[in-house]
Design goal:
The complex is a heterodimer. By secondary structure, chain A is mainly alpha-helical. Chain A has 24 helices and eight strands. Among the domains of chain A are: 224 residues, no CATH class; 78 residues, no CATH class. In chain A, helix 6 crosses helix 8, helix 20 runs antiparallel to helix 24 and helix 21 packs across helix 24. The radius of gyration of chain A is 24 Å and the shape is elongated. Chain B folds into two domains: 309 residues, Alkaline Phosphatase, subunit A; 49 residues, no CATH class. In chain B, strands 1, 5, 6, 7, 8, 9, 10, 11 and 12 form a nine-stranded mixed sheet that branches. Chain B is globular. Classes of the chains: A mainly alpha, B alpha/beta. Chains A and B meet through helix 7, helix 19, helix 20, helix 23 and helix 24 of A and helix 3, helix 5 and helix 6 of B.
Amino acid sequence: MADKDIALMAHLMRRAGFGAQYHELEARAAKGYEETVEELLHPEDNPHGMDLDLAERYFIEWNHFVRGVPEHHAWRMINSKNQLEEKMILFWHGILCISDSKLQSYPTEHQELEMFRRCGLGSFRDLLVEISRDPAMIYYLDNCLSHKGAINENYGRELLELFSLGVGMDGEFNYTEDDVKECARAFTGWTIANSIPQQPYGRYAAKFVYNPDDHDDGEKTFLGETGRFNGEDVIDIIVKQPATARFISRHMYNYFVADDVEVPSWMDTPPRDPETIKMLEEEYYRSGYNIRSMLRVLFNSDGFKNARFSRVKSPIETIIGTLRLIGDWTTPKPGLEFIFDEMKYMGQEILNPPSVEGWHTGREWIDGGTLAHRINFVADSVSDAEYPGIRDIINRLANEGPTISPEGLVDGCLQMLGDYEMADETRDMLIAHAEKGSVLRTDAEDFPSQVGETLQMIVATKEYLYA
Amino acid sequence: MTSNRKDPVLVVLQMSGAYDALNTIIPYNDPHYKDYRPMLKVEPEEVLAINDKVGFHPAMAPIKSLYDQGNVAVIQGIGYPNPIRSHFRSMDIWHTAAPDKMGMDGWLGRSIRDLDPNKENVLTGVNFGRGLPRALASSGVSVASVGSLDSLGVLTGIESQDQRSEALDIFARMYSPMIGSGPTNDYLSQTGLDALKGADILSTAPGKYSSSVEYNGDQFSQWCKNVAQVHLAGLGSRVLYTGLNPGAFDTHANQPVALSKLWSDVSVAIGDLYQDLKEHEASEEVVFLMFTEFGRRVQENGSGTDHGSGSVAFVIGDQVEGGLYGEYPSLEPDKLDQGDLRWNNDFRSTYATLLEKWMGLDSKPILRDAYEQFDFIK
């Protein structure tokens, strides 16, 4: 098996998942790239992606989800074999945003993330219907306050602006203020059974209710079509629009392939890679708005395969990826809530995006504080030979022979981290750093710490900020 | 303003969790107060009276003493339109100064940009705490965020001093903008080098510092000490930020004990910081703003108080014209806002006053509107 196959598999697993240890990359590469893509695209073949029983017994707060929701999802991101399924939940959570700071109801928020698990790889039309019926969303964007004769435009507007069409495309606006109002009218009557109660009643998830008496059944004109539209009719019109195909394709590209400009600039700034976007748009229509089909085309495209290290890793990718690499949290133990703090300190608190726009990505993940926090978290993790994943790296390097050159040590570590590539100057500096005693003995007592020091320096590089 | 006066410095103290305004500045002679607070009321003889209407919580003696010296402005009835009783959203509003829409960046981040438009000093803004508060975040603005002055910057996990300085040396060279390519490379290089430089400069502060003030060992006291160390080191920092961990003041239960302990710790730390600056003849250079995200429910729940609105904030400093500002919100049942204190002055008035009259900045672009100002700066 060629090294480049493993390098490509490392790329796929960083993007379609949260990274993998080297032995998993080898096994998957042996199985084949396209086969792995298919496996990732079909989480239903392996329900839960893991055995959840033990963790559910241990983390008893998962019984009702009064608390522990971020930790539950972190656990699944770390341990699930269905890596893409988890990655898609985060993808949709970053676009179809809701926020705990408004909802204060973990059960209702959890219910939404589980809906993404159920529908996140299916038809985009169905997903828009589901999110429009989702109690967390209805409360978050005030659709429960939108009534026949007295609309609240919040959901109607964000559905168009942030969830489907986008403000504009190729310099043109995608919809008018009238479209927003008509859209909001179509969703009147889509409400929840009870407003989401604040503490201490937050343990019950809210439920969707359609109230025909409060639905404005009058004629509406929306994006040029006229009829007595209900919400689903409006969604049917939305998903046909080229702007929707573009919007969802650009989001996929930005999340899986390479950092594009931030969403508010999409009206005027063309895509970074128009060819790949066009391919995704075509598949969107061909497949009947099917997300799984679009992802299949994406992962098998050259545009994707050639885009290694062109995205700044998000904080959650950094944290989960590191924990998967070192092999921590594979069995339950106390203290899992630390993970939520780490997300917060690094700038991506799950279930609390800064606004309905979601998180800004790319370089905006990084500022002085978050950079130092990120580097220290990863460096402290990889330099600890107590972790099974790190011990495995040390053993593999030791098995290469009784001695290892500084180059061998640096290149070996880079390979074990998922075939990272460094600028030549950076690699030279890493080698110089490893070169303390010229040739290193792999059976020496301090060999593990030498490996740890090298790993630590690698994860502190600019190159390692990327995935 | 004399020519040798140093640049004004703003220290922001964020009291997370929402302190109970009613038991912080206490309307101890209002008959309604005792009715609403049968278990939690502070007895009139214990209140540190400001006048015959209101007084400080008994645990706030150090701040009361600063008040008596004329150095504390108490902003009563502070709030914002359409109060929200969620900690996160409410704190967001205080951070972004944007109550009506979700704001992305912070009022102090925008202020730092105006204070140092050419990014000449990586330490114009410094945060002491874990994670950067959104108040300080703004695109393109570098703010140093410090967990502790004793372990600064990157690769803090390396224990050996020699090994760490070697590692940092390599780090600095690896983050050269000359290495690497791509649209983000310069930015990442700059941010990495700024973090390094900031940590480098900051790490000199404790060595330059000596004081007769002995701070307590709690985290907030230590951060207050760090504030003094950094200010006294003369590093050109203009905005220093610290506070209590999220939820600290969230006294839904067991409030009497918890609130006394919190106010005691906080007040002692602030008193020490003030004394420290005074000892170094620097107290005229600094003004403190102490705030929380909202007030608490007027009617107690038997053991604590739930989320409310209408709060009280404090501005402290030698250059502060001490006294009571704003009005104490009425406790008449029909004057309450859904059972909470009704705010009567927008928090952005306090921000505008600090920005204009203290920091010498134009508040309008920062706050995105003009707000009426107080006279609490001399």
